[in-house]
Amino acid sequence: LKMTSKLYLHNLRKFGLKIPETVIASTKDDLENLTEKLDFPIVCKGALKDSYIAEDRMDLHIYFKKIDELLHGGQGNVIFQEFIKGDFYCTTGVADKDSRLLRCLAMKKLGVDFKGSTWCGFTVKNNILREMTEKFIEITGWIGPFELEFICDSQGNYWLFEINPRLPAYIYLAAATGQNIPDALVKLAEGRIIKKDFSYDTDMAFTRLTEEVVYPKRYIDSLNKNGKVQEDAMPDKKCKTIKTFYGLLADKDDDKAAILYQSKTVSYRQLKEKINERCDELKNTIRKKDKVIIRSDETPNTIISIYALDRLGAVIIPVNPLATEKEIQTIINDLKADVIISKKNIKRITDDTIGNLPEDACMIFYTSGTTGKPKGIVHTKESIMNPCLEEGKAYGIDESDIIGGTPSLSSTYGFGAFAIIPFMSGASVSLYPYATSLNNFIEVIETIDTHKITVFFSIPTAYRLMVSMLSMLDKYNLNSLRLLITAGEPLGISLHKNLKQILPHADVLEHLGCTESFHAILSNTPENMKAGSIGKEMPFYKVRIFDNAGKECPPMVKGRLAYEGSSGKYIREKEDNGWKYTGDIAYMDENGYFWFVSRYDDLIKTAGYLISPHEIECALMDSQAVSEAAVIGVPDPIINQRIKAFVVLNNHFEPKDNQLDKSLLKSLKLQLPEYKIPSELVFVDSIPKNKRGKVLRNRLS
Q1: What domains sit in the chain, N to C, each tagged with a CATH number?
Q2: How far, in Å, are 90, 192, 659 from residue 93 at the CA level?
Q3: Tens digit of pLDDT for each residue in 68-122?
Q4: Quick one: three-class SS letters along 206-262?
Q5: Which end of the chain has fewer CB atoms at under 10 Å, N or C?
C-alpha cells in the first residue's frame, strides 16, 4: 500500500473520508480511558464473531467480561467505534496493479429476523458510494479484491467504518446480477487486461441463511428498513408488485419531502397521515369496486384522494380539470360510473353498482381522442407498476431526485411521472397546476429553480417555450436539471439541439408510449441515447414494425409500430394477448433504435406518395423564424391531396413580410424533394391542440 505497511481507518480522515471515531485496544489497560474518547452507544468488534453494541457502562462491563481471556492471552486487538445510526451499505470489487477500480457493486443491507442468524440486502446504484470507493482505492494504492462497509446517516453523510481485504461470501450472488468480480480477479492474476465495467442489475435481493429455513417470498418483497413486513405491501396473486398504492410509501424516510407544492412541503409521514384521514372521510361513501370519477388537478389533494380511494378498493377514473360537463357525462354514460368527486363535493350517481369491469381493475384512463371519440383503458396494478418500475430504473431515478413537469395527473404520462415513479423510488415530486402550465411557462421555470427539480417530464410544446425564453433564463438557475424527458409528439433534432445548447448538463430523452401501455414502450436512456430517435425497447415490451400484410419489416423499412407486453385493455375488450398497434408509422435502424415517421392517420397521400407531415414540420422549424408548424393534406382533384403548412412565427418576425414565405419555401427545397414541398404556407397565431398538447389536425383547414 502507498501509505504504510498497515492501514488504519483513522488515517483516511485527512483525505476527506468520513470515519467514525475509533479506539483500538490490545490490553486491559487500553480499556481504562475508553469512555473519555467515545460516547455511548459504542460498537465493539474484533474479538468475538459478531459486533456488539454497548448502550451504557453496564453493557460495556458485560462485554469486557466476555473478552477478558482474549485480551489477557494477547490474542489480538479489540476495536471500539463510535456508533453511527443510519442505513447500512457495502461495496465490493477489485482494483488492478495500478490501483484502478475495474469492478464495483453496491448493496444496501437490511436486517432480517426469521430463524437463526440471517441477513438480506439488495443491489443499488449509488454514485456517492462509487466515488468514495474510487477515492479509497486511489489514496491507499489498493491492489486486488475488497469489501468496504458504510453507514449513511440521517443527514445523508456516508461513513466508511470497515475495510475487508477480501471478497465477501455473497460475491457469487453478485455474479448473478451481471457483475462477475471473481472472474475479473482471475484474469488480472493471469496478467490479462480488462476494461472497467460497473454494470449490474439493481433491486436484486441477496439473502444469506445460516440455518435451513422455509418462508414465503412475499416477506423479502416487502421488507422495510427494520426488516418488518408492511401489511399493505403484501403482494397478491394478480399483482406482481403491491396490493395498494399506499404500499409504495411503506419503507420510505418519513421525514423526507414527498410532495413540493408552491411554498408547501408534505413529508412522507404527513402524506401517509393525510391518506389515512381521507380514507376515514370517504369510507362511509365509497364502496369496494365503485367506479369513481375524480377531477384531477395537480395538487397534493389529488394524490391523497386517489391513494385513499385505491386503499378503499375503488376503481379510479381521473379526468382532466379542464374537462367540460358534456365530456364528463360521456364518461359517466360509458362506464356506468357510481361516484364523482370534485374539489367541493362528493356525489353518488347511483346506488346500483354495475360490475362491468375485470376483477383486478384498478384505474381507467381515457385516450386523448385526437382521431375520434376518447376510449377508456382499464389498467391493473401490474400494468401500472411494471412499466413505472422499469422506467425509473432506466432513468436512474433515486431518493435524491426531485421530479417535476407539465403533464396532467389525469393522463397516464402525468400520473406515472408524478404519482408512482417518485414514491416508488423514494424521491420527491414537485407539482405545478397543469391547467396554467403552458400559459404561464415562466412560472414553471421559476418552480424548477425554486424546488431544484432534477428530472423534468413534459412535451415538445413546453420545451419550445423553454427555448424561446432563453433570454429570461439567465436570471434562473436550472443547473439542477439532469434529465429532460419528452413524449406526446415528436421533439425533432432541431429542438433537441436547442435544448442541449441552453442546458448542456441535462440529457434529453425522447420516448414513446400510449394510454394502453401506461408509460414508455420505447425510450432513450442516459446509457443509450440517439438524438431524434424514440429510443430502444423498454423491459416488459417487445416492439416490432409490420407492413400492411402483417409481415415484420427489416431494419430501415417503414411500417406500422406494434408492441407486445404489459398493457391495459379497452372497456368491454375481449381477451387479446397479441400485438397491439399504436397507430404510428416508424422504422427501426440497424442498432435497435426506433424512429418515428408519422401517425398513420396523419400521412399525406399525394401524387402516389405517402408523406409524413412530421418530416416537413421539422424542416420548417429548422428556420430561426419558425416557432411551431403543423402540416396537413387538403383535397385535390388531380393529385388526391396537396400539402398545406401552418406556421407560427417567433418574435421579431412579421407575417406581413412578403419575402418570408418565399424564403421558407426556398430553405425547404434545400432539405426536401420537390414532391414534399407545401403548395401553401399560412401564418397563424397558434396551432390548435387538445388538453394534452397534441395537435388537432382536423381543426386545420
Answers
A1: 21-82 (3.30.1490.20), 87-209 (3.30.470.20), 382-535 (3.40.50.12780), 603-699 (3.30.300.30)
A2: 10, 17, 66
A3: 655 555 556 778 888 888 888 999 999 998 999 999 999 998 764 433 345 678 8
A4: EEEECCCCCCCHHHHHCECCCCCECHHHCCCCCCCCCCCHHHHHCCCCCCCEEEEEC
A5: C
